[in-house]
Structure formats: structure tokens, C-alpha cells
Design brief:
With 555 residues, the protein is of the alpha+beta class. The chain is built from 15 helices and 36 strands. The strands form 14 sheets. A four-stranded antiparallel sheet has the order 22-30-29-23. Strands 31, 32, 34 and 35 form a four-stranded antiparallel sheet that branches.
Length: 555
């Protein structure tokens, strides 16, 4: 076909197409077949279309709107929201079918409308602020501010706040959904966005871990001494810095607070060496703890504490100059665990200051001495010099069978008490002397007089274990304890046997230590001591005593 013929054919096709569109599109009417939300408006004028759409607008206002979240429903209606169908916009939209776009597009629009394929949505319109107020109310219930992670110390109390994301309602999307093309009953799902915190887990993780590590007692050790820093004091050393400008939070140590802590620790730890003390008990020795001599190196202590504050080891050895006592607490505990009380005795005396001085000095001299197996004890050999130069004074004594005074008066109270403790421990008695007359505060037949240089108390440790003597005194009493490893010895005493009781003889001089009219009968007394070990007899002693009568003169 020639070019002229092709041009004529195209021109004819365009003419026929334009003619068909013109037939369908009348200047004052909507293209046939057009619908708005199911309402047929094709072929109607604008006024007729308005009238056809108005009933749908009324029904739309009564239609419910359900806005839903995962577990919440906010019910309302279009009228309550101030949302209505825009009739004018819908009519204009319908009238534009077949009238917009290129000729080919208009032809296509008319063809689709004629085939019933054009059903336009109905534009919605918010007439006032009620829709936005409704959205605000939902946002108030849904929106949640994010929680920033935080690490803090308040008055020694640590806290770690875990970060958490917030929620924020997508208001624009909800508004668009409410105003969008929807069915008569509208169900609109809420969309909320996660809002990440400004301070997240990574920003606080290290500081939180170090804070938790520091929140525990910290024990500082120097030699035998230790002091425990409580968590609140340890945490008072720390300051929280950050996070800021992309830098994670961190814990720093307050230098001044650390110096104060080290100074306080040094006060608690420093001190001279003190030996542990073994003290008498009911059956075993008690231990008064001693201590090492300690002088803390405060500079080294500062560094050690700073290093250990965030560590898992909660006991820190502090560098210090350490001196050890002659008897450590641990060694004293070993000794106390190994020994048992073998014998003990207490006697009492009336209040007398001079007598108290002499008794207390003698008891202190004997306190703590050790007697080895096979070693013999002599009262006078052990006590040393008894004179005013060594602190002794004049007090009551028996001289030549008569009450008098002498330097060291009252030492017989000490020897009698020691004798009874030793006798009960089952030890070998070598020398023991009774008093000239019976002194009623002593056990009958079991007193032990001493008078230098010839009247002595002598006994021997005939066991296989070393023993320790402990002694103490008060204003009116003196007590001795004998301790050693268990020997297995069992000691019993017979009741005192008395005979030859006698009154003072006629004309016997009054004794100045006794009140007028007061009489102590003379008598002979026998007490038998039996000592066994493992059922075998070790000692059987007969302590025979001859007491002369004494009195204070006529009453």
C-alpha cells in the first residue's frame, strides 16, 4: 500500500474512534456504566449524581469504625470522628471519566465504564479536629517513651537500669487509613513503631558489669590482721562518667576517697605484735588471740585496692612490714586443742591488802611456767627472792606455832592452793608440810605450809607429758590450774579421818590472830590419795597431819 493510502486509513480510524467517544461522552453527563462505591451514576448530570450519592453519605456517617491493637479496641463512628463522604469530590471524579488524559486513554476509560469495570472509590473528608483528637487519645494509650540504660550509685547503693525500646503510634498512617477507601464497617489496625533508646545495652554493659563486681565486701589482709571493707564503702570510691557523644559509660575511682579508705584501713591494721594468751577454762585452755606487728605500705595498698575493686578475688594481700609474736594465735589454738585440765583448786581469804599483794605476786610468778616430764618443782627454788625489793610486804604468818607477821606472809595460801591442784593432777608429791594449827579456810588435812628455807613444797612431774601451770588471784581468792596432754590418771581422796581431838591446854597463851573465846581444836587427821593410770595403781599417799589446838584467849 502506498504512503498516501496508509495515511488515509489512519485518519479514518481516528475519525471513527473520536466519533464513538463523542457518542458516549455527552458534555453534561457522566459516561454510562460509571459507579461510585457501588452507586450507579453513569449517564447522570452533576445534579442527578449529587442526588444519587446523598443517601450513601447519610448511611456513611452512621457506620461504625473499629480501631484495633493487639489487645485493645477503640470503637467510634464516622460521624463522631467528623468524617464524611465528599460528594462533590466523588461527582467530579465520576465526571472526569472519559475526559482526562490522551485520546487513547479517554477511549480506554469509556470502554471500561461501558463494560461495567469502573467503580470509583469515594473520597473521605475530615470536617474538623475530632479525628485528630481521637488519634491523640489512642496515641496517649499506645505511645511509650524509650528507657535509656543507666548506671548509678546513690549513697552507696548501686543501680543498673536496663534499656528498653519505646513505642510511637504512626499517626499519619492511622489518619490515612481512617480516611481511606473502606467498607461500610471499617476495621483499622494500629501501627506502632519501635523507638530505640538513646543509651543502649552496649553503652552501659561494661560499666554495669564492673559495678556489680565492686558491690561485694573486700577483705584486706596484712600478716595476721585483716579488715573488711563493706560494699557501701567500696562503692563510695566510684564515680560514673558518661555515656556521652557516643562514648560508653565507665566507672572511675575517686582518688581522694581511695586515700581516705587506705588511711582508715591502715589505722585498723597497723599495730605492735601481741602474743596470744592461753587462759584457763573449765576443761580446756581458752585462747586470747594475738596479732602480728603490722605497718601498712599505704602506697602499695592504694594500688592493690584499685586493682582488686572490680575483680572476682575479694581478698587482697596488702604489702606491709610484719613482725611475728612469740606465740601466734594459730599455735596457741593448737596447744589449747592438745591439752586438758588435769587438776585445779581455789582457796579464799579475808580482805587484807598486804596479804593480797603477797599472794598476787607469788601467783603471777608461777603463772605460765612449764614443767617437763621428770622435772621436779620446788616452791622456794621457783619463787625467787621474797623481799621488799621484789615487791613483797609484811603480812600474817605462823612463826613457831604462833600467829605473827613476816615478809611474804600469805605465801602459805599460795602453796596450799598449788598443792591441792597438783595432788588432784595425780603427780608425785615429794615434800609437803601442814600448818601448826588448822586454818579453817583450807581443806582439812590437805594444807601445805612453806617457810624459807627449810619448809618447802616439792613435787615432780612423773608423767610422760609436759605440763603448764596457770594461776590467778583476786582480792579474796587464788586459783591454780594444771594443764597437759591427757595422761589417763584418775585421782580420788578419802574423807578425812580425825582423832585425838583436844582443847587448848591450861594456861595456853592466846593467839593474836583469833578472837577472844574462839577455839580451834587440835587433832590428828589422815587423808589418803589414790592415783591410777589405765586401771593400774600409780600412787597411794597417806597425808598424816598433826594440828595443835589454838584459841584467842578467854571470851
Amino acid at each position: 500500500m502506498s504512503g498516501r493510502r496508509k495515511f488515509a486509513a489512519v485518519t479514518a480510524a481516528i475519525f471513527l474512534l473520536a466519533a464513538s467517544v463523542g457518542a458516549a461522552v455527552v458534555a453534561t453527563r457522566i459516561v454510562p456504566g460509571v459507579r461510585v462505591a457501588g452507586v450507579a451514576v453513569g449517564g447522570l448530570t452533576r445534579e442527578e449524581a449529587h442526588a444519587a450519592l446523598f443517601p450513601a453519605q447519610l448511611a456513611f456517617g452512621r457506620a461504625p469504625v473499629l480501631v484495633i491493637d493487639a489487645d485493645t479496641v477503640w470503637p467510634t463512628t464516622n460521624a463522631d470522628l467528623g468524617v464524611t463522604l465528599d460528594v462533590e469530590a466523588a461527582t467530579s471524579l465520576a465526571f472526569s471519566v472519559g475526559r482526562r488524559g490522551a485520546p487513547s486513554e479517554r477511549v480506554e476509560q469509556v470502554a471500561r465504564a461501558t463494560a461495567g469495570a469502573v467503580d470509583l472509590g469515594w473520597p473521605r473528608l475530615a470536617t474538623d479536629a475530632r479525628l485528630d483528637a481521637f488519634i491523640d487519645r489512642i496515641a496517649n494509650e499506645i505511645d511509650r517513651a524509650p528507657i535509656d540504660g543507666a548506671v548509678a550509685i546513690d549513697a552507696g547503693v548501686p543501680s543498673v537500669t536496663a534499656p528498653a525500646p519505646g513505642l510511637r503510634l504512626d499517626r499519619a498512617l492511622l489518619r490515612a487509613d481512617v480516611l481511606g477507601d473502606r467498607h461500610e464497617v471499617s476495621i483499622v489496625a494500629v501501627t506502632a513503631d519501635l523507638v530505640e533508646p538513646a543509651v543502649g545495652e552496649a553503652d552501659i554493659a561494661d560499666a554495669a558489669a564492673r559495678l556489680i563486681a565492686a558491690d561485694a565486701p573486700l577483705r584486706l589482709v596484712a600478716g595476721s590482721e585483716s579488715v573488711t571493707i563493706d560494699p557501701a564503702r567500696a562503692l563510695s570510691l566510684l564515680r560514673v562518667v558518661g555515656p556521652a557523644h557516643g562514648v560508653a559509660a565507665r566507672l572511675v575511682i575517686d582518688g581522694a576517697a581511695l586515700d581516705a579508705l587506705v588511711a582508715d584501713a591502715a589505722v585498723a591494721l597497723d599495730g605492735a605484735a601481741l602474743a596470744a594468751v592461753l587462759v584457763p577454762g573449765e576443761d580446756v585452755l581458752g585462747v586470747v588471740p594475738g596479732r602480728d606487728g603490722v605497718v601498712v605500705d599505704q602506697s602499695a595498698a592504694r594500688a592493690a585496692i584499685a586493682e582488686a575493686l572490680f575483680g572476682t578475688a575479694r581478698s587482697v594481700d596488702i604489702r606491709a612490714s610484719v613482725t611475728h609474736p612469740s606465740l601466734s594465735t594459730s599455735r596457741a589454738n593448737e596447744i589449747a586443742a592438745a591439752v586438758r585440765l588435769q587438776g585445779a583448786f581455789t582457796t579464799f581469804f579475808p580482805v587484807n591488802e598486804a596479804r593480797r599483794i603477797n599472794i598476787s605476786r607469788a601467783a603471777a610468778t608461777f603463772d605460765g611456767i612449764a614443767i617437763a616430764p621428770g622435772e621436779t618443782f620446788s616452791f622456794w627454788d621457783r619463787i625467787g627472792e621474797v623481799s621488799p625489793r621484789t615487791g613483797y610486804t609484811y603480812a600474817g604468818a605462823i612463826i613457831g606455832g604462833v600467829s605473827s607477821t613476816a615478809i611474804g606472809g600469805g605465801l602459805c595460801q599460795v602453796s596450799t592452793t598449788l598443792f591441792n591442784a597438783v595432788a588432784r593432777a595425780g603427780l608425785a608429791i615429794g615434800e609437803r608440810h601442814p600448818h601448826a594449827y588448822y586454818i579453817e579456810r583450807y581443806p582439812l588435812g590437805l594444807d601445805a605450809a612453806v617457810f624459807a628455807p627449810d619448809t618447802d613444797l616439792v613435787w615432780t612431774n612423773d608423767t610422760s607429758e609436759p605440763l603448764t601451770i596457770r594461776a590467778t588471784s583476786t582480792d579474796t581468792s587464788v586459783t591454780f590450774w594444771i594443764y597437759s596432754a591427757p595422761t589417763g590418771r584418775v585421782t580420788t581422796f578419802s574423807d578425812p579421818a580425825e582423832w585425838n581431838l583436844r582443847w587448848p591446854y591450861a594456861g595456853q597463851p592466846a593467839d593474836p590472830a583469833h578472837a577472844p573465846g574462839y577455839v580451834v581444836l587440835g587433832r590428828d587427821v589422815l587423808v589418803t590419795r589414790t592415783v591410777t593410770e589405765g586401771g593400774a595403781l600409780v600412787h597411794e599417799d597417806s597425808f598424816l597431819t598433826h594440828y595443835a589446838p589454838v584459841w584467842g584467849g578467854p571470851g
